[in-house]
Amino acid sequence: MRLTTPATPAILDVDTGLDDAYALMFAACCPGIDLLGVTCAAGNVGVDQVVRNTLDVLDMSGAAEVPVASGATGPLADDHRSADHYHGKNGVGGVQLPRSPRKPVEEPATEFLYRVLSESSPPVTLIALAPLTNIALLLRAYPEAHKHIDRIVWMGGARRYGNVTASAEFNAWSDPEAAHEVLHSGIPITLYALEPFYTVTVSSQRVAEYTSAEDPRIRTIGEMLTYSQTRNAGETRIPDHTASCLGDAGAVMSVAAPELTTTSRLSVDIELDGSLTRGRTVMDERTSHTDTQPNDEPIHTQVITEVDYEAMEQLFINTVIAGVDTWAK
């Protein structure tokens, strides 16, 4: 498919593990995304490794001009708990990426975000693929930043059940206080939850082709996808259980190609206290609110409920794999 909409000015906020890497590749290569910068937060791995992975992926994808800022080393209220058991110690499945010679900008993520937002004439879309710590800290330090934000697209939460616990999705569970602050900020939010997250994949046949490709960059992508394929084995929410999940990349594709998504406007909040449900995103899908108290204030959020996952797979391949020859070597 061809993208026909104007490029969306965007900043990605990442905790670069495997699926953030796929998202960065897509954003770097997609003509529908004007990538103004990337901010990093602890999540899948510690923030220093997140920065390292982010720089490496961007440079490998021909986007060495995109600035990267280091941010939160942990959540607002708890200690950092990584997902390196899933993403591997280096966050990208042990795959050795070509090393970028770059360093992050000197500004911390909060100041970098505010400066880039303020300097952009059209409002910017924040695509948050990590715990929302950096975004919450931005809004605490610079409440006026909301004037420069078109919307926040967050890969977080779940309509049904979680992945890190029975109730919670990893990004929401990692910093529910930050998620609560952002959800209550009044900024328009689009939620890309676990239900579409697991459906956007690359087939096992294509993964095998990439792993044996002549181009070393495609082989590197194939090795990462192979690791994802292994780690997701048995996940019943993946339509083809042998495929490799692209995860966060789907959230970026939803910005570039919104026609591939179906959304519902729901009230969404997050549980902060439950011993079994901390970090759970609670989505009110009732058609009747006769029991709602008069002082209840619903938080209306656009929730992506379905995606055309076959078209998204093709979009990723057309944008990333087919575009490798255009990457700076």
Automatic annotation (TrEMBL):
GO terms for cellular component: cytosol. SUPFAM superfamilies: Nucleoside hydrolase. GO terms for biological process: purine nucleoside catabolic process. Residues 11-312 form the Inosine/uridine-preferring nucleoside hydrolase domain. The keyword Hydrolase applies. InterPro entries: Inosine/uridine_hydrolase_dom (IPR001910), IUNH (IPR023186), Ribo_hydro-like (IPR036452). Residues 77-87 have a biased composition (Basic and acidic residues). The keyword Magnesium does not apply. Keywords: Glycosidase, Hydrolase. This is Inosine-uridine preferring nucleoside hydrolase. It comes from Brevibacterium mcbrellneri ATCC 49030.
